[in-house]
Specification:
- The chain is built from 9 helices and no strands.
- The protein is mainly α.
- The chain folds into 2 domains: 1-57, Orthogonal Bundle (Arc Repressor Mutant, subunit A), CATH 1.10.10.60; 71-204, Orthogonal Bundle (Tetracycline Repressor, domain 2).
- The longest helix is centred in the first third of the chain and has 29 residues, at 3-31.
- The model is unreliable at 208-215 (pLDDT under 50).
- Pfam families: TetR_C_7 (PF14246), TetR_N (PF00440).
- Keywords: DNA-binding, Transcription, Transcription regulation.
- GO terms for molecular function: DNA-binding transcription factor activity; transcription cis-regulatory region binding.
């Protein structure tokens, strides 16, 4: 098989995967997780059941794909800035977090989980384990790196990450679950991020980093 043919088949497979994930998301929202069959997903996505089962043998695997794609940060949001400048790093993370929370599908994902978690607690666990926690841990590791670099003085990076992300999501994201037209403009979002960064720098920042610990 030539490289050109291989690339073509890969693109077709990716297109079908995107169609399947989109169809599943729409049906989970419209009919609920329990009442959505893989056959209905295949029909709405315009693919054969064999094609769907090849990529997603179970409904749980399909939901995992929705979570993974919703929280995927490859090449988009910045969560690994170099330590040494707390304000700059947090600003980058803050705007990246806004981009993540406001991307198409994120609100839908949370609505699916909230609607079904009482009957299917595994959906909440999947969202937590594959989506929220990996992202949260990346921010916590960044704050630990700033502490090691001497740019931040904190004893609990987990608490600090919770505070920072919470200040942003509480305005940018959570109202969207109840208010369908909630969409702050860019200037407001920038102000929210800047204020969250200012509070973190005031609480945890060091004006003159003394260098990594142990030196």
């Amino acid at each position: 098989m030539s490289a050109q043919t291989s690339n073509y088949h890969r693109r077709v497979a990716e297109q079908k995967r995107t169609a399947i994930v989109g169809a599943a998301t729409a049906l989970f929202l419209e009919s609920g997780y329990d009442r959505t069959s893989l056959a209905k997903v295949a029909d709405l996505a315009g693919v054969s059941k064999a094609t769907l089962f090849k990529q997603f043998p179970t409904k749980a695997a399909l939901f995992e794909a929705i979570v993974a794609e919703s929280w995927n940060t490859d090449g988009t949001t910045e969560i690994h800035p170099a330590p040494g400048d707390l304000r700059k790093g947090l600003t980058s993370i803050g705007h990246g977090y806004v981009e993540l929370l406001t991307r198409p599908g994120m609100t839908d994902l949370f609505r699916i989980v909230i609607a079904e978690v009482s009957r299917f607690p595994e959906l909440g666990q999947t969202q937590f384990d594959l989506g929220k926690m990996p992202y949260f841990d990346s921010v916590r590791r960044y704050l630990d790196a700033e502490r090691e670099a001497g740019a931040a003085e904190l004893d609990d990076a987990e608490l600090a990450a919770t505070q920072f992300l919470g200040m942003i999501s509480n305005y940018v994201f959570w109202p969207r679950l109840l208010l369908v037209h909630w969409s702050p403009d860019d200037n407001t979002v920038t102000r929210v991020v800047d204020e969250a960064v200012a509070m973190m720098v005031s609480r945890y920042g060091r004006d003159t980093p003394p260098g990594p610990r142990g030196r």
